[in-house]
Amino acid sequence: xxxxxxxxxxxxxxxxxxxxxxxxxxxxxxxxxxxxxxxxxxxxxxxxxxxxxxxxxxxxxxxxxxxxxxxxxxxxxxxxxxxxxxxxxxxxxxxxxxxxxxxxxxxxxxxxxxxxxxxxxxxxxxxxxxxxxxxxxxxxxxxxxxxxxxxxxxxxxxxxxxxxxxxxxxxxxxxxxxxxxxxxxxxxxxxxxxxxxxxxxxxxxxxxxxxxxxxxxxxxxxxxxxx
Length: 227
Prior knowledge:
The protein is of the alpha/beta class. It has two domains: 2-118, Response regulator (Rossmann fold, 3-Layer(aba) Sandwich); 128-223, Arc Repressor Mutant, subunit A (Orthogonal Bundle). Helix content is 41%, strand content 22%. The protein is built from eight helices and twelve strands. The strands form three sheets. The protein has a five-stranded parallel beta sheet with strand order 2-1-3-4-5, with helices on both faces. The protein has a four-stranded antiparallel beta sheet with strand order 6-7-8-9, with helices on one face. β8 (141-144) and β9 (147-148) form a beta hairpin. α2 (33-42) runs parallel beside α3 (59-70) and α6 packs across α8 (190-204). The longest helix has 15 residues, at 190-204. The radius of gyration is 18 Å and the shape is elongated.
C-alpha cells in the first residue's frame, strides 16, 4: 500500500513517513502542493495525508485539485493546526475523509487511516485472499487458517503486491516501488531477500501458496499441495 504525505515541515514530514514505512507502507513525502500534484499524476496511491499550511498553495486547494484534476478517489486525511468548525467543514467539502488536529499522537493518525481504509467504498475494505493466505490491507497482517504469519514490513509489502496480482507476474521494479518511497535509495537485493524470507515463512506455516520466480521478469504466486 502506497501513501502520499504532503507536509511542509520537514521534521514532521519525515516522522510521519518513517513511521508508516516501519509498518509496511510505501510512503512518498513532499513539502509543496505542486510536487504533490505531480506525484499523484504519475503514481497510484492508496491514501493521502495532507497538511493545509503549504508554502505554495493552500492544502484545501491541493486536495480539490487532486480530486478534480488528477482524479484520485482514495481516502484523504487532513492534518492541521486549524481547529475552527469552518475549516473542518471546508476540509470535508474539499474531499477529505477525516480531519486530524495538531498536535496529535502518531498512533491516532494510524488508527484514523486504518478506519477510513475500512469504510464501505474504500478500495481496502475487503480482505485479499489467495490460496489459504488471507491478507488484511488495513491492519497490514497476513494469516493462514487464522494463524498470523508474523511478517516484517518488507515481507508484508511484497506479499500484498503479489496477492493483489492474483497469480499474475509482478515485475521486480514494481516490487521495489512498494518497498521504497521515491526519495529512498534502493538496495540491490532487497526484493530477493524479502522473497526468500517470505517463502520460508509460508513453508513453515504449511501454506499451499508458494512464490515462483519468473526468470528475468519478476515473481508470481502459485497454489498447490501444502508444503
